[in-house]
Amino acid sequence: MALFVMIIRKMVQNKWLVTSLFIGLVLSVALVSSMPIYSEAILSRMLVKDLETMQTKRNVYPGNQYNKLFYTKETPEKMNAIYTKVDRYIHEQAQAGFQIPVQELVVDFQSKSMKIRPENDPEPDSKKSLKTMSLRSFSGLEEHIKLIDGRMPAEQQPVDGVYEVLVTERGLIQFKTVLDLAFAVDDDKIAGEIKFKPVGVFQKTLDDDPYFRDTDLSELSGSFIISDKVAKQQLMQEARLPVASVGWFFVLDYSKMELRFVDDFVQTTNKIKNVLLNNVSLYQTVSETPALDTIAKYLERADQLRTLMWSLNVPVLIMLGFYMFMVSNLIADRQKNEIAVLRSRGAARWQIITSYAVEGLILCGIAFGIGPLIGVALTGMLGASNGFLEFVQRVRLPIRLTEEAYRYGAISSAACFVIMLIPIIMATRVSIVGHKQQLARLLKSPLWHKMFLDVIALALAIYGLYTFKKRLADLQSLGLNAGDLNIDPLQFVVPALFIMGAGLLLLRLYPWVLRLVYWLGKKWWPPSVYATLIQVGRSSSQYQFLMIFLIMTIATGVFSASAARTINNNTEDRIRYGNGAEIVLTSQWINDAPPPAGPGQPQAETPAVQAPVHYLEPAFEPFRTLEGVEQAAKVFTKETSFSVNEGTGAATLIGIDTDEFGETTWFRDSLLDYPINDYLNLLAADSQAVLISKTLAEQNKVKPGDTIWVGWSDVPQQPFKVYGIIEYFPTFNPNPAIGSVDVSDESSKGNAPMLIVGHLPRIQVQLALEPYDVWIKLKPETSTAVFYESLKQSKLPVTNIVNTREALVAAKNDPFLMALNGILTLGFVLSILVSFIGFLLYWVLSLRGRTLQNGILRAIGLSLKQLIGMLAVEQLLTSGVAVLIGIAVGNIASRLYVPNFQIAFNPSSLVPPFKVMFDASDLMRIYVLVGFMLVVGLGILAYMLSRLRIHQAIKLGED
Q: Whole-prediction pTM value?
């Protein structure tokens, strides 16, 4: 107990240091524990978004899960036993096993087909009036339908020996009957007399009701619908009618699907299949779960997102670890004298370490308790990010504090505990004599200097960069996915290693630079600057912890800002490049192609030589005059064959009007050796001129001036002249498609796509007139809604619209990009916050430690203004230099290592190539925040100096 009280008193005495250390602990635990929280929340959001996309594209409700078993030759008793067993499992276990709300569980009975004829058939022996019918029943049907004619069947069946049934409107027509006309079963397979009478016609209450697996009820047009209760009794229990199948249809609320439920969902689906297979053979079962394909793709994206999150968070975690080590080192430095005295009085090292370990356990324990809760708040902030340092109001993420979060928090707390003890363990190795000797040797080289840790870190970072470049080249040249090659775990830490190594290397040179500055102006420096240069030069090792800390934090901030802007801007560029223009319209052209065969009609015989289709080009002017259109261009695209230099191949042909195209399209100028308009001007010089892709030129050894013959299946090849070679062109991806390259087959390595760009009028005259797309550039002030309304009123025969603006908005709402922006924003904010706290803490402690020295300087005649000037110069030479180095190292690290993040995407689809980008506003934020930090820090230190009393400082020296 006495030891505990002593520890608490010691913590109170060093309350500012302990508070700073505690802030670092809490931030570290919160950040680490927020990773699984945010990962689960954003992956759950991503899953729901993927399922919503699936519903939109495939028009299938993703929450459907359908299982069906067919009966063949089983006895009625066996049928009933199988049904009872499967139905009990589905209702009692499977329903809860999905872990998400079950909106509907529909049990569907279907009888075998049977022959029926009208009861009062005038020709009972004729087969003309025989109809084929099957009975169907659905549990809970009454709550989802409405009658459009007739009435509901009576609850007690049969009524006067007749079973009352419902039919659809289409069924009423197919049976060629009216309501209340009875039908008798006329089938050799069914014994006894059974009659059915349609008494009501129904339709769905809601058109989009997911209760109905058959959305248009077409499957029920040949069926009579009986109540679920009657079906169970007559089909299963009494076996009066032969049962064909029983189905169980789940309608699940997929909007409540979360990452933690995915395994349960998949396992429950598989368990239901196994239960069915345990009772009937494989060919007697059907199991349909539309969401499984989407979930499989989602799990791949989830792995990519985790990879990206780790690669983004590792530099921030290393920075926080360094911050805690620095603060722990400051605590150890202040208490080294006390530790040395305890050692000289006979205290064992383990006893001293234990006392500090108890202090660390208290702080880490509290941080472990509250860190995950703050992690939840951080996750909420991350979920609101709309871009780098941009926040919007959006639907709240499904945030949940998980066991995994506390597990991560515990690991983080343990790591922090070890980091805190390292300086204490090192301090206990020194006796009182050794401590006094260390105080006198201010120029002692730090450990990292002796062990060349800066060189080792840089070597590892350069190795990581080399392996990444090699891996990326393989991915792009072989058309592979990012997951086809193993990821080197070192890839996550190389940016932080580079920042640390480069910072330490520059600090190794720093004392020499100081000496040079001192030597250059030693005849002119005023006393205050002279004294500061000597102070910093002789005690440079004292400042190195602060300087490397500031370098790491500022460089991490610059790296985060650059990574965010690069990935955001490259994502937008990729969408713009892939679409080519803001709006791309495809319209219907009048032609003489034979119409396709209608449903049920036999296909016309295909002639041996298919006649070419002739098209009538619609007027282009109506597209130009649509409201909000700034520029429009015709763009013809066709897959063609070519011949050149005795070689042949397939290429994409793009036909354009050069002036209109150049004013309409989007293109990044840095992609080509010259601006794209220069190439278009080159093309405009000759109507026979074409531009070809670099892939075509390299694979077929083509050079400018060569003649290339181009055509397609029903169009003979015509000659064009090569005027230029380009690597990129709007919409063209020169990388091989995924799976198109076989590593073992040398010939397949030439499978890169090829391109030919020519004049549209020449192509239309010399080759063929075929439909082209219309590319449109909108005026900046025009909204998409205004353009769409104008397009609607124009009644142009548009069959497809590609809207780049909408694609950009969808990309911003993509959970992948949301996660990236959130994590990078958090990394940037934390780096600035931690650097400010560490900076202020270091200088306050440093100033307190030099109270006697400052008092003497004041006593010998230095004014307060000169003393503040000395402090400002000292800050400039240490903190200012560290900030400049941090900005420089951050820029270099960004240019070298930000391209690593494309490995989390599909590199083969990243066209245009990844380009590192810096935003002036982000750098201005860094400069403003750093400037504010230095000014506020200097102001606080100046205020502390102004409060200094000379007599108190001198008296302190006497004591």
A: 0.70
Give how far Cα 214 sits from Cα of 59, 71, 108, 126, 621, Å.
12, 22, 12, 34, 45
Q: Give me the amino acid identity at 458.
A: L
**Phi, psi at 724, each rounded to 5°:** -160, 160
User: How far is the CA of 280 from the CAs of 68, 108, 238, 379, 774, in angstroms?
Assistant: 11, 18, 21, 49, 57
pLDDT digits (tens, 9 = 90+) for 132-185: 888 888 888 888 888 888 888 888 878 888 888 899 988 888 888 888 888 888
Let me know: does 333 contact 37? Beta carbons within 8 Å.
no
- Give buried/exposed letters for 648-683 (b at 16+ CB in 10 A, else e): eeebbbbbbbbebbbebbbbbeebbeeebbebbebb
Contact 518, 529 (CB under 8 A): no
- Encoding tokens for residue 692? 């070809």
Q: Is the peptide bond before 595 cis (omega within 30 degrees of 0)?
A: no
Q: Which residues of 377-389 are buried (b: 16+ CB within 10 A; e: fewer)?
A: ebbbebbbbbbbb
Q: Which residue has the tokens 């994590």?
A: 823
What is the pLDDT averaged over residues 542-558?
77
| Dihedral sign (CA 216, 220, 224, 228) | negative
* C-beta neighbour count of 160 within 10 angstroms: 8
How many CA atoms, within 13 angstroms, populate the side-chain half-sphere of residue 639?
3
CA–CA distance, 243 with 110 (Å, rounded to integer): 6
The 3-state DSSP class for residue 667 equals coil
**Cβ neighbours for 659, distance < 8 A, ≥ 6 positions apart:** 680, 684
Q: Is the dihedral of CA 260, 262, 268, 271 positive or negative?
A: negative
Calculate Rg over the CA atoms of the chain: 39
CA–CA separation, 274 vs 268, rounded Å?
10
- Work out the burial of residue 844: count CB atoms within 10 Å of its CB; fewer than 13 is exposed, 13-18 middle, 19 or more buried: middle
Helix (H, G, I), strand (E, B), or coil: what is residue 339?
Answer: helix
Does the pLDDT at position 749 exceed 70?
A: no
Partner residues linked to 197 by β-bridges: 164
By the 8 A CB rule, do 186 and 116 touch?
Answer: yes
Token output for 632: 């429009």
Nearest partner of 389 among 887, 928, 28, 804, judged by Cα: 928
d(CA 517, CA 529): 11
Kindly give, in sequence order, each residue whose CB lies less than 8 Å from that of residue 366, ignoring residues fewer than 6 positions away. Answer: 22
Contact 710, 718 (CB under 8 A): yes
3-class SS at 635?
strand
On the 0-12 / 13-18 / 19+ scale of CB atoms within 10 A, 775 is buried
Q: Which two three-digit tokens encode residue 73?
A: 């030759």
Closest CA to 186 of 272, 271, 125: 125
Long-range contacts made by residues 399-405, C-beta under 8 angstroms, separation at least 24? 399/37, 399/41, 400/37, 400/40, 400/41, 400/258, 400/260, 401/37, 401/372, 401/373, 401/376, 402/36, 402/37, 402/40, 402/260, 404/36, 404/40, 405/33, 405/34, 405/36, 405/37, 405/372, 405/375
- DSSP state string for 295-312: HHHHHHHHHHHHHHHHHH
How many whole angstroms separate alpha carbon 856 and alpha carbon 452? 39
Residue type, 614: H
**Cα dihedral across residues 703, 705, 707, 711: positive or negative:** positive
Per-residue pLDDT tens digits for 799-828: 888 999 888 887 877 767 777 777 777 777
Closest CA to 94 of 69, 70, 67: 67
Three-state SS annotation for 910-924 = CCCCCCCCCCHHHHH
